[in-house]
Design brief:
This protein is α+β, with helices and mostly antiparallel strands. It folds into two domains: 4-202, BirA Bifunctional Protein, domain 2 (2-Layer Sandwich), CATH 3.30.930.10; 207-252, Roll (SH3 type barrels), CATH 2.30.30. The chain has helices at residues 4-10, 29-38, 83-86, 89-105, 160-164, 170-189, 191-194, 197-204, and strands spanning 20-26, 46-52, 70-77, 110-112, 116-119, 122-132, 135-143, 209-216, 221-228, 234-238, 241-245, 249-252. The strands form two sheets. A seven-stranded mixed β-sheet has the order 1-2-3-7-6-5-4, sandwiched between helices. Strands 11-10-9-8-12 form a five-stranded antiparallel β-sheet. It is globular and about 55 Å long. 43% of the residues are buried. The model is unreliable at 57-61 (pLDDT under 50).
């Protein structure tokens, strides 16, 4: 169970204090946040659900949201920053999620561009950022208590409990996540700090440079990752030269595929 009074107290001084909406069950916290944003909900509003019946990730992939097992949270941000800088929001959110996992569970997560957190080869969290007129919504799902996962997942999954061998507090992860998101929101509002985000991601991710990958989505290609540009887009070296991937996802290249297509 989440203690919203204690959470709000822990968030004193942040943009999220006093703006937490705790739901036992909902279809999708991102859908709730977008609807509330269109109705005028303030900057820093938060939706946290114990269960989602229609949780989703990037490209409308289903996000398994079993009751009480994971952290399913969406935040609404009215940052008032240029659109070009807003492109960094998914990466900044990934940094925040990694910080929360480190602080609350003592685990070092790897960020697979653009929005997956991995522990080794297994996925522990996902991020879905959506922009609307005048605001953005960031949804983050973190596996906390799960002990098993469905077969056939594109990336094998894990949870904080499985990785640590102990029960990790969902509330502690939530508090650390929102504190870290508040810091990253401040960084995005400050140009000098915002431009450091791609380098910060590159330092904590094994996927940004020198990794043979397959890019999935509308900009499909195969090659070797060659860093991020100033917008946080992934550069991939292919046989035809450097290709800048603006949208899509990446996986490790299969052994039988050419890495320079």
């Amino acid at each position: 169970m989440l203690d919203t009074n204690a959470i709000n107290a822990a968030l004193t001084g942040t943009i999220f204090a006093g703006k937490l909406h705790h739901l036992r069950t909902t279809g999708s916290t991102n859908i709730d946040a977008v609807a509330a944003g269109r109705a005028g909900a303030p900057h820093g509003s938060v939706w946290i659900a114990d269960e989602q019946t229609a949780g989703r990730g990037r490209s409308d992939h289903e996000w398994l949201s079993t009751a009480g097992e994971g952290l399913y949270v969406s935040v609404l941000l009215r940052l008032g920053i240029p659109p070009a800088r807003l492109l960094l929001l998914p990466l900044a959110s990934g940094l925040a999620a990694a910080q929360s996992v480190r602080t609350a569970a003592g685990l070092e997560a790897d960020l697979r561009w653009p929005n997956d957190l991995l522990i080794g080869p297994r996925k522990i969290a996902g991020i879905l950022a959506e922009a609307a007129s005048g605001f953005a919504v960031v949804g983050i799902g973190i596996n906390v208590h799960q002990q098993s996962f469905p077969d056939g997942l594109a990336t094998p999954a894990t949870s904080l409990d499985l990785e640590t061998g102990k029960r990790i507090s969902r509330q502690a992860v939530l508090v650390e996540l929102l504190k870290a998101l508040a810091r990253e929101a401040e960084a995005l509002a400050n140009l000098a700090l915002a431009i450091e985000i791609p380098d910060r991601v590159a330092r904590m991710s094994t996927w940004i440079t020198g990794r043979n990958v397959e890019v999935h989505g509308p900009q499909a290609c195969t090659g070797t990752t060659a860093g991020l540009d100033e917008h946080g887009f992934l550069r991939v070296e292919t046989a035809k030269g450097i290709f800048t991937v603006q949208t899509g996802g990446i996986r490790a290249a299969s052994p039988d595929s050419s890495t320079m297509e």
